[in-house]
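Lab notebook page, bench 4
Experiment: in silico fold of construct C2
Operator: M.H.
Input chain length: 336 residues
Purpose: comparison with the prior construct
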Amino acid sequence: MAVLVVLLSFLVAGVLGDEFSILRSPGSVVFRDGNWPIPGERIPDVAALSMGFSVKEDLSWPGLAVGNLFHRPRATVMVTVKGVDKLALPPGSVISYPLENAVPFSLDSVANSIHSLFSEETPVVLQLAPSEERVYMVGKANSVFEDLSVTLRQLRNRLFQENSVLSSLPLNSLSRNNEVDLLFLSELQVLHDISSLLSRHKHLAKDHSPDLYSLELAGLDEIGKRYGEDSEQFRDASKILVDALQKFADDMYNLYSGNAVVELVTVRSFDTSLARKTRTILEAKQAERKDLCLRQHGRLDKPKNFLTTTEHLEIVDKNSRKPQAKKLTQTSAPGW
């Protein structure tokens, strides 16, 4: 019997090894400290409820309390890190919950709620996965993050500019000359640039419409695949990532005057049996790169105004700042 209990405990630990963590949250959003598992498919509902939006199915999860219904956060920032079930976050600084059934998820439902309720106020909505060159931005995000690097070439060029993170990060065992290392470092550059660009438009963090940021980072996963999780490179990258995430959380929290929820999902691997196949940025580099251009108002728009892996692309009319829906038939992510 004792052996069975031990085996079951290891089994549960393996299934629930991934984590959902709260890095920062305002006093109006109450997360209880406890070891309550949260199903991966309900992560978007946690984000929606914490912002004061309704969900289709009640969430009977004790981790999120009711909070102040009349004072909701101005922003939700969700960072997903693939390739590791947990990071060595400073003890006592975060609240973490076991993540069960780690299926791929998106915050599209939350973005739709924001569009529906605050369409006239053009809130900032940014969803980004650098390793897959996926980006979606609408509303004021188009002007704030117009210069954000999102393609392989842009990411590489940005890293080798004078004011990049390469000048301040302790690379240790990581190399500037390795493509996998550069992918990881470019994601840290994106974190830095998001908070830096937003700091130039601080008034947007003080309006009445809620903002949404959803970032998916796969660089650490690629480091683990290349060097192994017991390697010095993986250990160095993990530590660098923790420091970068802590700084990013502080920056975003402070830009919103302490009225933002910053959440972290760490998952070793998603159950992608029901997910659409996409090419990673490293795979795309080896394939023939095709330019997909969208013509609007008699000119070519940059490919950063829409999400590349969905069939419904929402295109922003930059004159009216209102989204116009356009449907394109597309079965896989294009390579820019």
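Observations: The two ends are 57 Å apart (CA to CA). The first strand starts at residue 19 and ends at 24.
Next step: discuss at group meeting.
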